[in-house]
Amino acid sequence: MSKRTMLAVLLLGAIGAHSASAAGGPGGPGATTPLSAAETADLRFMREEEKLARDVYLQLYEQWAMPQFSNIASSEQSHMEAMLRLLRRYQLADPAAGMTTGEFNDASLQALHDNLMALGSVSGLAALKVGGFIEEADMQDIVAAIDRSKHADIDQTYGRLLCGSRNHLRAYATQVSLVTGSAYVAQVLDQSEVDAIIFTATERCGP
């Protein structure tokens, strides 16, 4: 994703190209039609992208002891589990299987994780901005995946993840503003889109 790569390079240094490798399998129980290659790639990538969020937040919590990181990491764990249920439904291999904290199959996510951790280790404020970056990036990727999806069950799960990311962005943006005394500045999405999210109330995102 060229915009993501450009922003990450500016913020963090060189990052590998954003790619999601496709691996397939037949539709599992509840699957009405086979997945496309794009849908398969998106499911696998999203599983690891949610892991990236969880892993970064857990590590930043250990370093900075900010409760936002611990709380949101728990939510990201739920997101990971939701993606794993879809992978199992469609009989797809789990790319996160056997991976420890901070370890990824996808090379671009590995590079992004490492650079985000380097940035988040600079200061508590930098760590909060890393949280905002991750949530904006997640939303961008989820919306793109929804556009490529032709399955209602997948869209429903992505919708819940998208709702969760909006809430997470609100939490990080609030903390950034409290620390800096200034409005949160968008890092990936358009500022108008971010403002529309952070200036509205927290949502209930369902199970």
Any descriptors?
207 residues, mainly alpha, disordered N terminus, 67% helix, Ferritin
Describe it:
- This protein is an all-alpha fold and 207 residues long.
- It has a single domain (2-10, 38-198), classed as Ferritin, CATH 1.20.1260.
- Helices cover 67% and strands 0% of the residues.
- It is built from 7 helices and no strands.
- The longest helix has 29 residues, at 152-180.
- The protein is globular, with a radius of gyration of 16 Å.
- It starts with a helix and ends in a 9-residue tail after the last helix.
- Mean pLDDT is 88; it is low at 1-30.
Short description:
With 207 residues, the protein is mostly helical. It has seven helices and no strands.
Uncertain segments are 1-30
Number of domains: 1
Biggest sheet layout? none
CATH architectural name: Up-down Bundle
How do the helices and strands line up, and which of them pair or pack?
Layout: H1 2-12, H2 37-64, H3 67-89, H4 107-120, H5 124-148, H6 152-180, H7 191-198
